[in-house]
Design goal:
5-stranded parallel β-sheet, 9 helices, Rossmann fold, 11 strands, about 20% strand, alpha/beta, 2 domains
């Protein structure tokens, strides 16, 4: 059965040149975007239970824009002003530039990598005398943080936001040929919002090993998995999938 209607469980891309939009015209499919999960920041009182004090750290590692937003939000709520001496290490230049929303970029010590935390390790090692704080979510993956321990990076994780299911009650039934997920929390949200969900002929795509495993653990059929060597992104994986079945 051809896939004609796809639901991507993420916000709609702001960039009009997103490859998802190319798929619409290329394969005559309909693609809707609906985030199944959302980020919710911890309150100052919730954060204090971790007994972590920002003033004890000389550098911060940002792995996402959400970590930037909620770090500075908590600083404000806790009436803590980050000193100009505080160093910022960001996994990408995009995230580094995003810090300008809260600080004067040219007056701060900001360093960045090109893609992810793995590529940032060599830079962190050059600043081995720093005491690093990593703002994370409640569902952060530990594999990459293990790399910091292996390289004897002095760091501490601070949970500053959590991932919660969105309320999708207004959607009605899931009238789609394919559902695409990007995190295990998305699968949890699926069943929280649609407890009687039956997959039947609906195809399911998953990005990442943990998401794929969550699909299988939920007793669902996994029809499309990414990334793969020939499909590093979900958009590319969808393109290959549709090219085989929708022509």
């Amino acid at each position: 059965m051809k896939v004609k209607k796809i639901l991507i469980s993420q916000p709609q891309p702001e960039n009009e040149k997103s490859p998802y939009f190319d798929l619409v015209s290329q394969f005559d499919v309909e693609i809707d975007f609906k985030p199944f999960i959302r980020v919710q920041g911890l309150t100052a009182s919730e954060f204090r239970k971790q007994k972590i004090y920002f003033k004890d750290y000389t550098a911060v590692i940002f792995t996402s824009k959400s970590s930037v937003d909620h770090f500075f939000r908590l600083c404000s709520e806790m009436r803590y002003t980050p000193p100009e001496s505080l160093k910022y290490f960001c996994v990408t230049e995009v995230i580094a530039l995003y810090t300008q929303k809260y600080i004067v970029y040219r007056k701060r010590k900001i360093f960045f990598g090109t893609r992810d935390l793995v590529e940032l390790v060599d830079l962190l090692k050059k600043h081995s005398g720093e005491k690093f704080l990593i703002p994370v979510s409640d569902v952060c993956k530990n594999e990459k943080h293990q790399l910091l321990e292996d390289n004897k990076i002095n760091y501490k994780k601070a949970v500053i936001f959590k991932t919660v299911p969105n309320n999708l009650s207004k959607m009605g039934e899931l009238d789609y040929d394919m559902l695409v997920f990007f995190s295990p929390e998305g699968i949890k949200s699926l069943f929280k919002n649609f407890p009687a969900f039956q997959q039947n002929s609906i195809k399911i795509g998953a990005f990442g090993n943990s998401t794929s495993q969550a699909v299988l653990d939920a007793g669902l059929r996994l029809d499309l998995q990414a990334p793969l060597p020939e499909a590093p992104s979900m958009a590319k994986a969808l393109e290959l999938y549709l090219s085989k079945g929708n022509i």
